[in-house]
C-alpha cells in the first residue's frame, strides 16, 4: 500500500503521519505543496495537521488553493482514499471534499489535551478496526476545531451513517459533538483529533494504531 503525505509551509505533523503509515506497513511518499501531481500508484493521501500557511485567512483556505490540491481533488474524484487530520480536516472542508466548516473553538482558546471519542460507525476502511460504540482516547491540538454544518447537511451525515467519531465530552463546541466525518462514498475521512499521536506505546497509548492497521488491511483487499 502506497500513501502520500502532503506537506505545506507550516505543516508540523507530516512526519508523525508518515511514521504512523509506515509502522502499519505502508510505503510513504512525501509530496510538497507546489507539486502538481501525485506519485504513481498512490492508494491514500494523508493531509496532516499543523498550521498551513500560518493559518492566515481561514485555516486551510490557502492550502486548499495550492497546486497539489488539484491532484488531491482528482485522486478523490477517481474514488481514491484520503485522510485529513486537524488542519488536514480543515483543508478537506475548504476544498469541499467534505461538508461543513471548522470554526474557532467555543472558548476562543487553543486546546491541546487527550480527549475521549466514541466510534459512531465501524463501516469504513478508517474505522473497521474499532467497534461501533467503542470509546477511544486520542489527543487534540487546535484553535479552530469547532465543527459546524447546516441542518440539512447534519441530517444527511446522520441518515447516511457518515459521522465517524463524536466527542464524549465536547471540548470545542462542535455541533452534535462531531469529531470526524466521512464522504458520501466513505473513502474520505476528516477528523480533528490526532490518531497518529496515539499510535505506539511511547505516545502513552495506542488507540490510534487500529485506524492505520485497518486502513492497510482494507486497502490491500480493495
Task: Write up what this structure looks like.
- By secondary structure, the chain is α/β, with parallel strands linked by helices.
- The protein has one domain: Rossmann fold.
- It contains 5 helices and 11 strands.
- The protein has helices spanning 14-23, 67-77, 87-94, 151-159, 209-221, and strands at residues 2-7, 27-32, 44-47, 81-85, 101-103, 111-119, 135-142, 146-148, 163-167, 178-182, 188-191.
- Strands 2-1-3-4-11-10-9-6-7 form a 9-stranded mixed sheet, sandwiched between helices.
- Helix 1 links the parallel strand 1 and strand 2.
- It is globular.
- The model has no long low-confidence stretch (mean pLDDT 96).
Q: Topology, pairings included?
A:
Layout: E1 2-7, H1 14-23, E2 27-32, E3 44-47, H2 67-77, E4 81-85, H3 87-94, E5 101-103, E6 111-119, E7 135-142, E8 146-148, H4 151-159, E9 163-167, E10 178-182, E11 188-191, H5 209-221
Parallel strand pairs: 1-2, 1-3, 3-4, 4-11
Antiparallel strand pairs: 5-8, 6-7, 6-9, 9-10, 10-11
Protein name: Phosphoribosylformylglycinamidine synthase subunit PurQ
Secondary structure category: alpha/beta
Radius of gyration: 16 Å
In CATH, the topology is named: Rossmann fold
Individual helix count:
5
Oligomer: single chain
Strands of the widest sheet, in order across it, are 2-1-3-4-11-10-9-6-7
Residue fraction in strands: 25-35%
The CATH homologous superfamily is termed Class I glutamine amidotransferase (GATase) domain
Count of folded domains: 1
Q: Quick one: how many beta strands?
A: 11
How does the major sheet shape up? Answer: 9 strands, mixed
Give the overall shape: globular
Runs in which pLDDT lies below 50 for 5 or more consecutive residues are: none
How far the N terminus sits from the C terminus, by CA atoms, comes to: 11 Å
**Mean of the pLDDT scores?**
96
What level of helicity do the residues show? Answer: 10-25%
The string of secondary-structure elements, in order, is EHEEHEHEEEEHEEEH
Which CATH first-tier class would you pick? Answer: Alpha Beta
The second-level CATH architecture is: 3-Layer(aba) Sandwich
Amino acid at each position: 500500500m502506497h500513501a502520500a503525505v502532503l506537506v505545506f509551509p507550516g505543516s508540523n505533523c507530516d512526519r508523525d503521519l508518515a511514521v504512523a503509515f509506515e509502522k502499519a506497513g505502508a510505503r510513504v511518499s512525501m509530496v510538497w505543496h507546489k507539486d502538481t501531481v501525485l506519485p504513481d500508484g498512490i492508494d491514500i493521501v494523508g493531509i496532516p495537521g499543523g498550521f498551513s500557511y500560518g493559518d492566515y485567512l481561514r485555516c486551510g483556505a490557502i492550502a486548499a488553493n495550492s497546486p497539489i490540491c488539484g491532484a488531491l481533488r482528482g485522486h478523490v474524484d477517481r474514488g481514491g482514499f484520503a485522510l485529513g487530520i486537524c488542519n488536514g480536516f480543515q483543508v478537506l472542508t475548504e476544498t469541499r471534499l467534505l461538508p461543513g466548516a471548522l470554526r474557532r473553538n467555543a472558548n476562543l482558546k487553543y486546546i491541546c489535551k487527550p480527549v475521549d471519542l466514541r466510534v459512531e460507525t465501524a463501516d469504513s476502511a478508517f474505522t473497521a478496526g474499532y467497534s461501533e460504540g467503542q470509546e477511544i482516547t486520542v489527543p487534540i491540538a487546535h484553535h479552530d476545531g469547532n465543527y459546524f454544518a447546516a441542518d440539512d447537511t447534519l441530517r444527511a451525515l446522520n441518515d447516511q451513517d457518515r459521522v465517524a467519531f463524536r466527542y464524549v465530552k465536547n471540548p470545542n463546541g462542535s455541533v452534535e459533538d462531531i469529531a470526524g466525518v466521512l464522504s458520501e462514498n466513505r473513502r474520505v475521512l476528516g477528523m480533528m483529533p490526532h490518531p497518529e499521536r496515539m499510535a505506539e506505546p511511547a505516545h502513552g497509548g495506542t488507540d490510534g494504531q487500529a485506524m492505520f492497521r485497518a486502513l492497510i488491511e482494507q486497502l490491500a483487499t480493495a
